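Sync notes, pocket subgroup
Present: LS, DG
LS reminded everyone that the earlier model was apo-only. Rerun requested with alpha-D-galactopyranose included. Inputs:
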Amino acid sequence: MKLRWPSIILSTLLLAANIHAAEAPTPHADPLQPTGQWSAFSKGNAPTPPMGWNSWNAFRTDVDESKVVGAAKTIVDSGLARKGYRYINIDDGWWLKRRQSDGRIVIRTALFPSADRGENQNTSFRPFVDRMHAMGLKAGIYTDVGRNACSQVWDLHSPNLPEGSTAEREVGLWNHLPQDIALFFEEWGFDYVKVDACGIADYGSDKPFIAENDYQPLEPLIIRGDLPNTDVAGVQKLYGDLSKTLATVNEDNDYVLSICTWGTANVRAWGKNYGNLWRTSEDIRSSWDSMLHVFDSAVTRALFAGPGTWNDPDMLYIGHGDFDENHLVEAKTHFSLWAVLAAPLMIGFDLREAPSSLLDIWGAEEVIAINQDAGGHQGVLMQDNERSQVIVKSLSHPREKAVVLFNRSDAAVEVTLLASDLGMKENKPVQLRDLWQEKSAGQFVGKKTFTLPPHDSLTFKATGERALEKGRYLSEMPGRINVAVDGLQAVSLDPVAHRTLAQKHAEKHESARKGSGYRQSYPGFGGPRANVSPYGDAITLNGQRYRHGIGALANSRLEINAQDEFTRFSAIVGVDESSLGKDGEVTFVVYGDGRELAATKPLGVSDKPITLDVDVQGVDMVELVARQTRQDPLPVVVGWADAVLE
Ligand code: GLA
């Protein structure tokens, strides 16, 4: 999709004018100075996207021990555990109250009988967690970063809401962070925590339900659908404190932090600095449009994910609604897309009753294998239009790529896969393996056209000769890139993530019709991207278009985890023609372990691009800095075209 960006940028710039400045993860006088360090979150245990089961999409607050244990049993007995599904996560609904004598959380033992330790005893999830561990599984729990939880506002009629006085019903981490984290991880032995944010979003004193339900108001830090008034730095601080506390409590590093602020508060840019996964969107629903929307919220963010830190477009909805056993085409497509995105794979279905057709989808071993590839590269959009997309995921093996061809629309479409989409030679055969059918799908030279029925997709592993004689394009290694500084002067809203949903949402949801409409609320538009400019245009330097490269805004710094595996870095650098700021000038500097290796003179949009070719032998951390030397009030776009590490 082509976005005509001047109007978008101008409007979002205006909108963002009074955003609170985001706090840098490691305060540095000049954020463009190299650090020689990997500054993204490197703790916790998520080298590949976490896989498992979560109670929410199956049961909402109607969760109980037999349902959770039933899911765990199926995970083991069906062989899903052997295929990587490991985490059994209890979502909202488990708590009874916060005991006032000592602030300890009490579990609702009517739902979790094994937590009952007799009257006046401390309830404990330890027996449940031990049971999961004995089954070879891991266990996860759910909480909120505010005083109250999501169910306490969104599931008000649930029988399983926290009970008691106002203070007893404050079950979230607010003012209880070290105590609750120690309880969950040290005493109970959990391995994973999902931390929601309704407590800092929905409990403003102006809401009638606050008085009606006798809650203590908390002036929201996140204003839903209102980015300019959201306290981005405040939200970051809360998750930063949480992140530190978790690291302190979990000396063995065997934990996972799942951040759940639904794409708001600019989390798509900073989630990677504090947690192992962060939600990029609102909750998935069981509809095709919703699935497209949450997919769109993550697919442009390949450079923000990598081993240990994952974009989370939300849990799988396979088994329900548009993805139930009567819609296996849609269910398979949903799974293929999550696989190629390197998204966490969390099953959300009552597994005690799972039909084999669905178990076969969650258990598709060759599809899982691309998700779990050790390289940790998120798939990159190589073709993108309203009806179809081609997403290519680099695999650890240099001659292999995973690719998903995907029909978003309600009519059949033709999609032509190009050898160049795969970074492979156009005059040599490319072998295809169909990962659902687990058999060869033949070979092609140059390109091959497929007809995809509505909502259908094809998932291949492609093997062939690399187009590059030596090395790999940097854009083929998104998992090695950390966006240390994204160059955004103001936090801008992302129109891509809303292209499908806005209209449908307005049609379907009464609240959207009655109120002021459906507002975009996912910032981060303009962040660096693989193979396109930050706004989705082709990388274009001085009249020449480039198929490969990194597009970014000026005043950005990228960390490349080279780990002493390469000898040369090369790229063609310049100011991109799509720059709105036509007067800006930029110098491009390459650092190796903090030392300057090469720098260009200042370049403007009409200057010829410069070819950099740099010795990076022995370098662990390459850093690419595009520093603006002549200012322009409007965003200046740069290209690291054909950037290659060899
Ligand atoms: C939020 C989250 C969901 C789920 C519910 C629980 O909506 O985004 O994933 O955890 O809260 O109430």
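DG: The chain is about 20% helix and 25% strand.
LS: Residues 1-25, 510-514 have pLDDT under 50 and may be disordered.
Action: DG to write up.
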